[in-house]
Description:
Elements: H1 2-23, H2 27-34, H3 40-59, E1 62-64, E2 67-69, H4 72-83, H5 85-102, H6 109-125, H7 136-158, H8 162-220, H9 227-240, E3 245-249, E4 254-258, H10 269-277, E5 281-284, E6 294-303, E7 306-316, H11 323-363, H12 367-383, H13 385-404, E8 410-411, H14 412-429, E9 434-439, E10 448-449, H15 454-464, E11 472-481, E12 484-491, H16 498-504, H17 513-526, E13 531-537, E14 540-548
Parallel strand pairs: 9-11
Antiparallel strand pairs: 1-2, 3-4, 3-7, 5-6, 6-7, 8-10, 11-12, 12-14, 13-14
Helix pairs in contact: 1-8, 3-4, 3-5, 4-5, 4-6, 4-8, 5-6, 6-7, 7-8, 8-9, 8-11, 11-17, 12-13, 12-14, 13-14, 14-15
Amino acid sequence: xxxxxxxxxxxxxxxxxxxxxxxxxxxxxxxxxxxxxxxxxxxxxxxxxxxxxxxxxxxxxxxxxxxxxxxxxxxxxxxxxxxxxxxxxxxxxxxxxxxxxxxxxxxxxxxxxxxxxxxxxxxxxxxxxxxxxxxxxxxxxxxxxxxxxxxxxxxxxxxxxxxxxxxxxxxxxxxxxxxxxxxxxxxxxxxxxxxxxxxxxxxxxxxxxxxxxxxxxxxxxxxxxxxxxxxxxxxxxxxxxxxxxxxxxxxxxxxxxxxxxxxxxxxxxxxxxxxxxxxxxxxxxxxxxxxxxxxxxxxxxxxxxxxxxxxxxxxxxxxxxxxxxxxxxxxxxxxxxxxxxxxxxxxxxxxxxxxxxxxxxxxxxxxxxxxxxxxxxxxxxxxxxxxxxxxxxxxxxxxxxxxxxxxxxxxxxxxxxxxxxxxxxxxxxxxxxxxxxxxxxxxxxxxxxxxxxxxxxxxxxxxxxxxxxxxxxxxxxxxxxxxxxxxxxxxxxxxxxxxxxxxxxxxxxxxxxxxxxxxxxxxxxxxxxxxxxxxxxxxxxxxxxxxxxxxxxxxxxxxxxxxxxxxxxx
Length: 570
C-alpha cells in the first residue's frame, strides 16, 4: 500500500510541476510573477491561481481509509512563499474551504481544511526569510515537514475516531513528507528559474540601454537646442534597435525623429501625457500615427527636477513580443539621456561662465593705462615719430588681442606675444625704467592655456614691483618638466603685506581683481590640476604657476581659429 501511495503521489507531483511549468510560460502570469511591487488586485489574482492549483490537488488526491492523500501543501506553501501574506491566505482559504465541502462525510475534512489554511500562513511567514541560494532547499524541506506535522497533529486532535486517525497517519505521513518535499523543491526551482531569467533579461536590457547611451553621448552633450546633434542621436538609436521608430521631443514639439511611422507633427497624445504625469506612458494599438500593430512608449526626459521633453519609441507588438521589456529599455534610455542632456547643459553653463569671466577680465583694462599710453604716444610724436608709429601699432595689436579673443585656449607663444606688447607700451612710457629678464627655453613648449592669464600677473609685477629709485625689475622664467610647464614671474619690489597674501589665497576675496580673476579662471578650467603660489618678502614677490601641457578633457584648443588672436613673433 505504501509503495502504491508513493507512486501515486509522485505522479501527482509530476503533474503539478508540469502544470506550473506551462503556467509560468504564459505571458500574463509570467508578467505577474515578475513584478516586484504587486497591487492588491494582482496579489488576489495570484492567490486565486495558486488556490486553483490547491483545489486541483484535492481532485487528483488518492482516497485512502476515508481520507484524501494529496499534494495541496505544495501549491499552498508556494503561494505564501512567492506572493506573501495576501496570496498565501487567499490560496489557503480557497483550498481549505474546498477541502471541507469536497467530502463533508470524511472524518478528516475539517482537520485537512484547517491545515490547508495553515499551509498558506506558514508560506507567508517564510516569504521574506527564504534565502536565495544557501540552504534554500533544506529550508523548503523543513517547511514541508513543519506543515505535514502540523496537519498530522490537527488530524489527531480533531478527527474521530482517534484510532482511525492514528492508523491513517502511520501509513501516509512519511510518504507525504518525502514526495511533497521533493515537489516543493522542484516547484520553487521552476519559479527560481523564472527569477534568474528575469535578472538576465534585466541585465541585457540595462546593457543595451547603456550601450546605446554611450553611442549617443557625443550628440546628447550638444544639448536639446542642437537639432543636428539630436537627429544623429535618434538615428543612432534606430540603427541599433532596427525594429523601433524613435523620436525626441521638447515640451512643445518633436525635435528629431527617425522612422517612417513618426513625423515632426505636434506631440503625440502619449508624449503629452508623459509630460503632464511625469511618468512612462504606453499606448497599445490604435495609434493613428503608427498603426494598430504598433505600440507607442513615451518616457519623460527630466533634469533639475523638471520635465523637459520625452523620448518616444514606436515598437511592433504581437503575440510573441514582450512589451514590458521594451518599456524597460525606453525607461532606462530616458534616464540616461536625461543625465547626458543635463551634463551637456551643465558644460554649456561652465563655458558661458568662463566666457563671462574672460569678458570681465577684458573689461577691467585700466583706463589709466590707455590714457598714459596715448599721452606717451603724443609726446613721442614730436620727439620720435617712428617710435610713436611703432607704439601705436603695438597698442592696436594689444587691444585687438585683449578685447577680441574668444578662444578657450591659446598657445604659450601667443600669450607671451600679448605680454611683450604690454611691456613695449609700458617701456615707451617709463623710458629706461623697465628691466625685464627673460629665461625661456630654446623651443617654447607646446602649451595651451586660457588667454589673458600671464599679462595680469606681469602687470601686477610692473605696478607693485618698483624699487626706491622708481625702477622696475621683472623676471619671467619658463621651464618644462615632464608633462607640465612651470612659469615664474618675479619682481624686486617691497613685497606684499601678510594680510594681502592671505587675501590672495582666499578664493572668495576679489579684492585684488587681477590675481583673483586669474586664479578663479584657472580653478574653473583645470580644477585641481593647476598650482598657483605667491611668495613675498622685502626683496620682492614671485608668482609661480604650474599647468599641464594638455588641457582638461572636454576642453580642446581650436588652433584652426587662432588667427583671431592677434600676436607678433619675435
